[in-house]
Design brief:
With about 110 residues, the protein is mainly beta. It is about 0% helix and about 50% strand. It is built from no helices and ten strands. Strands 2-10-9-4-5-6 form a six-stranded mixed β-sheet, with no helix packed on it. A four-stranded antiparallel β-sheet has the order 1-3-8-7, with no helix packed on it. A hairpin with a 4-residue loop joins strand 7 and strand 8. The chain is globular, with a radius of gyration of 13 Å. The N and C termini lie far apart (about 40 Å).
Amino acid sequence: EVQLVESGGGLVQPGGSLRLSCAASGFTFSTYAMTWVRQAPGKGLEWVSSISDGGSSTSYADSVKGRFTISRDNAKNTLYLQMNSLKPEDTAVYYCAPPSLGVWGQGTQVTVSS
């Protein structure tokens, strides 16, 4: 059974940082590209960032470029999202997924507010 467990969210002030983690199991993590998406209150899903299976290739939405960094540790079956210089508009539930499998975790809430 494919399982994705996101963690690391919380309440942070504008300008602060958080590091999200996504623990994956039930599939061969190292052979799948991975993606972070988010859903703000009352809005649809927004793609945030993607990383190739080996981690050598990354891409980012313009809204987070230069502030967020995606990475992965294939030995630990874990995906990360380092989020710096957070803004109130980054407030959302963040989900990780291997896009080709169509399976999502439960998400982790990130709230950026003073």
